[in-house]
Amino acid sequence: MIRTPNELTDKISEDLIWRRKELTDLRALVQQYHGELRSRVIIRCAIALLYAHWEGFVKKSSSYYLEYVASHQLPHKKLAVNFIGLILRSKFHELGASKKMSGGNVLADFFCTKLDTRSNVPYKKGVDTKSNLSSTVLIDILNALGLDASNFESRLVFIDTNLVRPRNHIAHGEDSYMTVKEYLDLHDDVITLIEMYRTEIENATALRRFERNAA
User: Fold this and answer.
1) Cβ proximity of 149 and 82 under 8 Å
2) Rounded distance, CA 199 to CA 11, Å?
């Protein structure tokens, strides 16, 4: 289990290293075949993989952060409200599967007796990117983890229009294409997005935003 800030940083770095290497190699490949007929196919593949690494990094790094927070087992009353929300959400799912009239007792017991007990933040299932990391899904994940969504506000249209939409067109077998320059610009912008997300998790860790009333 991830228990220290250094362990969390190392895990995120390990995940990012192989992604950056693969994307760097792909970027070089796009440039290598600039002007050739196969360039079109390479760029289409590159767009799909670029999106996949963006979604994959958000999902993996978020899961690591959840695991880190869960390892602290803070009392519920000291846990940030957004993580209480995640705990309650998991309990709501349990209640939804129960047809017992007394099923709501579990939730009532939490509010009445569990605020002083150690928390059990659900982390094993990670976060759900819904296989389509649009701006709406991204903001939902940021809010659920208590991360600062304001830093991404200027990027939301870009995410939907320049990244998710072309990727979806390609994934659905539609004829979507970018020039080499357009792809290279997209590549650089997505790398920036990934670094922004990484920084946000590191800041939340350093400032202990998972703890209620933390600075």
Assistant:
1) no
2) 14
Q: What is the rounded distance in angstroms from the CA atom of residue 200 to the CA atom of residue 77?
A: 24
**Amino acid, single-letter form, for residue 213:** N
Kindly give the parts of the chain with pLDDT less than 70: 94-101, 103, 214-215
Give CA–CA dist 79/213, Å, rounded.
Answer: 9
Instruction: Read off the amino acid at residue 100.
Output: K
Tokens of 121: 């933040």
Any idea how long the chain is? 215
- Which residues, listed in sequence order, are joined to residue 79 by a DSSP beta bridge? 211
* 3-class DSSP string for 24-85: HHHHHHHHHCCCCCCHHHHHHHHHHHHHHHHHHHHHHHHHHHHHHHHHHCCEHHHECHHHHH
User: What is the model's pTM?
Assistant: 0.92
Res 91: pLDDT: 79
User: CA distances (Å), 191 to each of 17, 25, 53, in order?
Assistant: 12, 14, 10
Task: Find residue 211's DSSP bridge partners.
Answer: 79
Distance of CA 45 to the CA centre of its chain: 22
Question: What is the tens place of the pLDDT at every residue in 101-115?
Answer: 676 787 788 878 888
Q: CB atoms < 10 A from the CB of 203, how many? A: 13
